[in-house]
Amino acid sequence: MIKKFKEIIENYNLIEKNDTIIIGSSGGPDSQFLTYMLNEIKAEYNLNLILAHLNHLHRKEASKDENLVKATAKELDIEFQVKIASMDEYARKNKISAEDAGRRLRYAFFNEIARKYPGAKIAIAHNKNDQAETMIMRMIRGTGIDGLCAMNYKSSNIIRPILSMEKRDIINYLDQNNISYAYDKTNGENDYTRNYIRNEIIPKMENINPQVVDNLYNLSELLKNDLDIIESRVDNACDNVIKSVGKYNISFDKNGFEALEDSLKSRVLRRAILKLKGDLKDISKENIEQFISITSLGNGKKSVKDSLIFIKNYKTYDLYIDQSNNLNKTIELLSPDKKTYFNGLIFNVTLVDKVTKTDKYTAYFDYDKVDFPLTIRYRKNGDKFKPYGMNNNKKLKDFFIDEKVDRNLRDKIPLIISNDEIIWIVGHRVSNDFKLDKTTNNILKIEVENDK
């Protein structure tokens, strides 16, 4: 078993010499097996192992499980860390299942430890049977290729070194080597979906084909290879059609997006949503199809999913998180050589000797014409502005119309204000009254970037 374990580590590049590894342990057979396997290679790889156990107070035997993991750590001379947190209380408070609560609490605890050790990895004892169960569970709930790939050997700082090992082989190894492990009686109950799949569905599938667990695992590996090809195409599509990425919005080239096949449109949108929201929770196939449907409609049409909005404009498609609650926000710009944060943007204000960088998100002003403190806000009714090159004021609304600024974007464009006068419509035009001229002695530079 140790030979196979080392092959997995090497084939998937899971562990390097001098790594710190936090072992997530429940005291059950899988985590006990993983602990002993890692201990076997500890000296060879010069590993710093930390055995981490969350006592979730869910079962009467919880304290016994904790004591078993603690005893294992002592026997193997491994550092032991424990945390006590009620998964049932957390589930009630957050209105989620106890199973989900336990998972969230465990990973939060493991990551809490990992943050103390730069580059630390978290080893989780998922095995081949877990992979098969995950695939079936996702098929039942509804999923695509991504979901059927199920768990990876490596995901960020998480490694799964026994993912290709079967449960029965793990149990046999532990029994043959007289290694103690905890037995969770609730695993035999069918209250949870995963337990029902493990105890009822998979045994029935094995009656049809005894190799079903192997076949499901192999399918997940084949799908991962296919997904790599798909993701490569999505990478290229994103590079070609995404024009800009902000904290709350992503803009797509209109012609480029429309030229994509619907399957690629879907993938590009899903990736963009993931970037903005951090997850794809509650985003269904139907939601994505609804977003794509506006490509056949006129400019200004939009599709809304909760706070997420996808809209068709003159030259772009824009996906953004609704920030309407912040439209009345006003903030003071700090003095020169300071940064100011405003709704996903960073404003850098500096005094400079000359004009260097020139783009639509960098503007220069005659410092002596500006009254501090400057403020940042969005437009208000009646706003007027004297655009660069003009001697008369112009209604801001008319300026936006003439510049063909999409209607849905007009309320989201920051304005820089000096003594109630607009000196810059960010990304568009500076005021003629504050421009640099032959009499300018001091130059004020304001540069805007996304707060990513």
From TrEMBL:
InterPro entries: Lysidine-tRNA-synth_C, Phe-tRNA_synthase-like_B3/B4, Rossmann-like_a/b/a_fold, TilS/TtcA_N, tRNA_Ile_lys_synt, tRNA_Ile_lys_synt_N. GO terms for biological process: tRNA modification. It catalyses: cytidine(34) in tRNA(Ile2) + L-lysine + ATP = lysidine(34) in tRNA(Ile2) + AMP + diphosphate + H(+). GO terms for molecular function: ATP binding; tRNA(Ile)-lysidine synthase activity. Residues 374-446 form the Lysidine-tRNA(Ile) synthetase C-terminal domain. It comes from the Bacteria. Gene3D superfamilies: HUPs (3.40.50.620), Phenylalanyl-trna Synthetase, Chain B, domain 3 (3.50.40.10). It is found in: Cytoplasm. Keywords: ATP-binding, Cytoplasm, Ligase, Nucleotide-binding, tRNA processing. The keyword Nucleotide-binding applies. ATP binds at residues 26-31. Its main location: cytoplasm. It is an enzyme of class 6 (ligase). It holds the Pfam family TilS_C. GO terms for cellular component: cytoplasm. Its EC number is 6.3.4.19. The N-terminal region contains the highly conserved SGGXDS motif, predicted to be a P-loop motif involved in ATP binding. Ligates lysine onto the cytidine present at position 34 of the AUA codon-specific tRNA(Ile) that contains the anticodon CAU, in an ATP-dependent manner. Cytidine is converted to lysidine, thus changing the amino acid specificity of the tRNA from methionine to isoleucine. Belongs to the tRNA(Ile)-lysidine synthase family. This is tRNA(Ile)-lysidine synthase. It comes from Anaerococcus nagyae.
